Amino acid sequence: MIAAATLAALATVCAVGAWRLTSARWPWRAPRAAILLWQSLGVTWGLASTGALLAYALEPFGRGVVHGLAYIGLHLREPHDFLRIGALMAGLALFSVLSMVLLAAGAQTLSARRRHRLLLALIARDEPRVPGVRVVDHPGAAAYCLPGLRSQVVVSAGTLRLLSPDELTAVLAHETAHVRERHDLVLLPFAALRWVLPWCKTVHDAHASVALLIEMAADDRARRQCSPKRLATALLRFGTAAAFATPHGALGATTGENVMARVNRLVKPRAELPAHVRFAIVAGSVILTASAPMLWLLPN
After folding, report:
1. 3-state DSSP call for residue 271?
2. What is the phi/psi pair of residue 95, to 5°?
3. 256 lies in a domain?
4. Where does the Peptidase M48 domain lie (predicted)?
C-alpha cells in the first residue's frame, strides 16, 4: 500500500503543480527550464496515476508494479479481490489510452506534414533573397516551419512585401530556432492530452502555457542573431496584416493568443532567473521524472 499511496500523492503533487504553474510568470524569465519542468510534470503525472492503480492492484503479490505485471502475465494469475481487479483494469486502460492517444496524435501530425510537403512541392518556389526558404505566392502574411527530418521554413510573398530585411531576418531566425530545438516534440504530448481531456481547464491552460513558452524560447534564440526590437515590430506587423492560420503540424512565429506578451518581453526584457535557480529547476525536474519509474520498479 505504501507504493500505491506514494504514487497517488505524486500524481496529486503534479496536478497541483501544473495548476499553479499555469498562472505563474517566472517561467517567462527562464522558458527552457520551465519547458523541462512542464515535461516532467506531464510524464510523472501519467506514470504516477497509472502506477498508483496498478500498485494497489498488485500489492498482494509483493513484487511491485513492473515485476508484478510480469508475474501475473507469466503465471496467468490475477488478484482475487474484485476491487483490486477493477484497479488493475483501470490502470491498464488508463496507460493504454494515454499511450494510444500520444501515438495517434503523432501519426496525425506526421500525416498532415507529409501532405503539406507534397503541396509545397507543387506551389512553393525558391527566392534568391531568402536562400533555403520556401516562398508561397499568397498575398497574406505567413511565416512558419515544418519540423522533421526534412524540415522546411516557409514564408508567403505577402510577408516578403510586409517586412523590412531586418524584420524578415528576425522572423526566419525565430523559425529556425523552432526547427533546431524540435519544439514540435515538446508540444505534442500536451496537444494529445488536450485531445483526450478537452473538458479539463488545467490541461487546456497547460497546453497554452507550453505553446507560449516555446515561442518565447525561440524568441530568445532569435535575438542572439538579430535585434529583439526588429522581431517585436515584425510580430506587430503580422498582427495588423491579413495573416492566415498556420497549417496543422507546423509552428509559426505569430501563433498563439499572447503575441503582445512576447512583444513586451522583447521590448522590455526582465532579468533572466539566476543560474543557480535555473539549475535547481532542471535538477528538480530530472529527479521528479525519475521518481515514478523508480516506484514502478521497487517491490512493495
Report:
1. coil
2. -65, -40
3. yes
4. 116-187
